[in-house]
Amino acid sequence: MSRKMLIKPFASIEAAALAPHSWRRRQVLRAGASTLVLALAGPKLAHASSVLGVRVWPARDYTRVTIESDQPLQNANQLLQGPDRLVVDLSGIDLDQALRDLVSKIAPNDPQIQSVRIGQYQPHVVRMVFDLKGSVKPQVFTLGPIGSYKYRLVFDLYPAVAPDPLMDLLAQTERKQEALDRANPNPAVPPPATLSGPATAQKPGTPDSTDEFFQKYAQGDAPAETAPKPSVKPQRAPTPPPVIAKKDDDDQYTFSAPKQAGTTRLLTVAIDPGHGGEDPGAIGGQGTYEKHIALDIAKKLRAKIDAQPNMRAMMTRDADFFVPLNVRVQKAQRVSADLFVSIHADAFTSPDARGSSVFALSEHGASSAAARWMAAKENASDQVGGINVKSQDASVNRALFDMSTTAQIRDSMRYGSFVLNEIGGINKLHKGSVEQAGFAVLKAPDIPSILVETAFISNPDEEARLNDDAYRDKMANAIMKGIKRYFAANPPLAKSRMT
Ligand SMILES: [Zn+2]
């Protein structure tokens, strides 16, 4: 095969016309039986960067545009007003079909971008103009090769006014809170000593002491399990709050903690679907993406939580976009979540690995080599998903990650045990106990936090299960039951109203 034949199908017309004879060095990579990819290198050929992919991840939080290339792309950008637009000049590159495709990749409902215009501005300089729907705060940064990605140039377009998870949640659950207030007009009836013993845990009209919830107290583990934790939540009321427990038709317990004297608050669960956007997570042999599985189970869990009269869910992401690990933690803290659950379906080096796992944070090293390996893999999400390490937020929030407490870990282990127990009813367990390792996403110092590996996507049988809607529903159900059991055994403390 002659050189000409090799080059012809892949080089853009412009590039071929501009410098056909200056291509001194070519690398031909075999990327498949019939596919050849040309990569051009050499100092005189700097303009010949190839675009390998253009991706757009629209979301309310921010819209990301990624341009992936075989060499780092030089860029200059300028934010202009009247109308709002971001002008970007990419140098060392010629307009090709991959870049042109960006135009059609902007969805009409993109929260930030109205449209994009693209053209060959000068020789080897491509100009892109993002017409914006409003004022944005762009972050433009580059990422080096990692995983299957080559060089990425990233445009994160944040709305000037960021959506606030707390305000969103309050708006969504205002009526529910009112209904709960009406249902519990005066929950402060039991004396404050409620949590110190079994007898006082009852209030008029509550189920008798044969109920599991009250048996817990009678078994004498109540003081340790339910005592207030000033070291964890020092800003909250020092007096143990009264707790109301009711048994419904479904043989499930409902319980609620007072918000302030005389009112009852909704219990908030932060649900964190792992990965997203540029970070696909693990990919199964049949092409199943962990990020999609995680999001679906999370949505199912959200629906179950929101169906409870006394609970509400906040999702760290509810679409296919990347959320940095510390932002996931911040969102949970912003809504003062009572619990945090991160949902995953990871791969292992061996396709034989199977079974579900539940992880909590560890204070002194991982509980096993596999747990350490898994935490390292999950923590790499920020590199694959791509964070701007130079941004102020990143450095400010790194400090947060060193504030984990023993109390949080102790509560997370209890919470994890309840969830693991329920998951054991629907899938084989990878290990019979909650494992521990340094997962960055579990580091909210004041929120019991667990990470559930719902199954191994790398195991063909388990990948098939993960693709089964009924299994995903069972998984969401098991997590839900574990959460309810944890709340019943460890009633959350009173929190001040969040508004
Ligand atoms: Zn994962």
From TrEMBL:
SUPFAM superfamilies: Zn-dependent exopeptidases. Residues 177-259 are annotated as: Disordered. One of its GO terms (cellular component) is outer membrane-bounded periplasmic space. Keywords: Cell wall biogenesis/degradation, Hydrolase, Periplasm, Signal. It is found in: Periplasm. The keyword Secreted does not apply. Its main location: periplasm. GO terms for biological process: cell wall organization; peptidoglycan catabolic process. Pfam families: Amidase_3, AMIN. PROSITE patterns: TAT. The keyword Cell wall biogenesis/degradation applies. GO terms for molecular function: N-acetylmuramoyl-L-alanine amidase activity. Residues 329-484 form the MurNAc-LAA domain. Its EC number is 3.5.1.28. It catalyses: Hydrolyzes the link between N-acetylmuramoyl residues and L-amino acid residues in certain cell-wall glycopeptides. InterPro entries: AMIN_dom, MurNAc-LAA_cat, N-acetylmuramoyl_amidase_3, TAT_signal. Belongs to the N-acetylmuramoyl-L-alanine amidase 3 family. This is N-acetylmuramoyl-L-alanine amidase AmiC. It comes from Caballeronia cordobensis.
